[in-house]
Each structure stands twice: as C-alpha cells, then as structure tokens.
C-alpha cells in the first residue's frame, strides 16, 4: 500500500508549516500499518489553475497527478483560511476534477478504489466545515472516505499559537490520527482485494 500526502499550505518550503507537520504525523501512523509514501508541499510546485490534467507549459500538476495515481491513499492536508480550505487545497480539488470523466480498463473512474482522508489545522473555528468541503470534493472525483477520515487541530480563536509550535501533540489529536491511519489502511486493503464492480 502507498500513500501520498498533498500538503496545501500557502507557504513553500523551507518555511515551517503546521499542515506539513500534521501530514507527516499521519504518514508516520500509516507507516505503522505497512503503508509507504511521501508528503509533498504543493506550493513547492507550479500548479496552474484549471480543470484539465495538463494545463501546458509550466504546469507541474501532471507529475503530481502521477503520484496520486500511483497511491492507494491520498492525504489532503490544509490550513483553515477565512473558514475555508486554503486556495491551494481548492486548486488541487479542481485539478483532480479533470479525472472524473477518465476511466480505467474496468470502466470505472480512475480514482475509484482509492481512499481519501483529510488533515486540518488552524487558529480559528471551522475544522468540521473544512473537512466537509474537502470530503465532498474528494468523493465527487471518486475517492472512498474511511470512517473517521479527518484529523485536526484548531487553536484558541484569534490566538497566535500554531500547531507547529506545540511542544507535544495533544493526545486527542494523536488518537484521532492513529484511528484515521488504521481505518484508511484497512479500507485501502479491502478495496484492493475487492474492487468496486466494473462499470
């Protein structure tokens, strides 16, 4: 089993990122279930706006898309901005939308059989709303959602503490991340062994 975390921080590397920290924690928990993979910061790449698989010269999405296609589990990690997923997260969902009309040899959309999970961080309310937005987008393009498919941390409203600044991961977050990883790995194995019926 392979997983890919697309980190939708607005900041490119090497700027520290709370979204990246939580994504790496999800990947580490997936690793404890025999799932390998990597976390990729989308802002490190030129992902052009649009709803096509390839927007032409200067578009790095096709290489990221290949990583998505090679994975069994997609972790979409995003901060909360103005109560919504980041604009980078929205762009990823828009680019994934290009594959809704593409089918594999089985006649099913390409993302069928892949598991989607979400990791959310922020200094404001809205983790459930952001998760819901991301869930709907992932499901629309064919991802299957595991039970407990979101882990999140939100700090006190209008406070300056970031998740990356915490000395320890709160046990509630760590426990939720462990459950997410266990459920996602389990579901991905089930879907691999028993795919959806051919279209």
TrEMBL record:
Start and end of every NADPH-dependent FMN reductase-like domain? 1-149
Which Pfam families does the record cross-reference, listed alphabetically?
FMN_red
What InterPro entries does this protein's entry cite? Answer: Flavoprotein-like_sf, FMN_Rdtase-like_dom
Coiled-coil annotation reads none
Q: Which domain of life is it from?
A: Bacteria
Q: Tell me, what is one Gene Ontology molecular-function annotation carried by this entry?
A: oxidoreductase activity
Q: Identify this protein by name.
A: NAD(P)H-dependent oxidoreductase
């Amino acid at each position: 089993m392979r997983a890919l975390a697309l980190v939708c921080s607005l900041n490119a590397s090497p700027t520290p990122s709370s979204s990246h920290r939580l994504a790496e924690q999800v990947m580490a928990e997936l690793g404890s279930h025999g799932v390998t993979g990597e976390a990729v910061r989308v802002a490190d790449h030129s992902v052009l706006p649009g709803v096509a698989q390839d927007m032409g010269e200067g578009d790095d999405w096709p290489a990221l898309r290949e990583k998505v296609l090679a994975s069994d589990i997609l972790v979409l990690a995003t901060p909360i901005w103005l109560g919504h997923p980041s604009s980078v997260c929205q762009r990823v969902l828009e680019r994934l939308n290009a594959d809704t009309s593409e089918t594999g040899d089985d006649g099913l959309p390409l993302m069928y059989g892949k598991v989607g999970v979400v990791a959310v961080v922020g200094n404001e309310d809205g983790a459930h709303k952001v998760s819901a937005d991301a869930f709907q987008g992932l499901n629309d393009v064919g991802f299957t959602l595991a039970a407990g498919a979101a882990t999140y941390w939100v700090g006190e409203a209008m406070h300056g503490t970031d998740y990356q600044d915490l000395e320890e991961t709160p046990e509630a977050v760590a426990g939720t991340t462990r459950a997410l990883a266990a459920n996602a790995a389990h579901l991905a194995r089930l879907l691999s062994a028993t795919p959806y019926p051919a279209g």
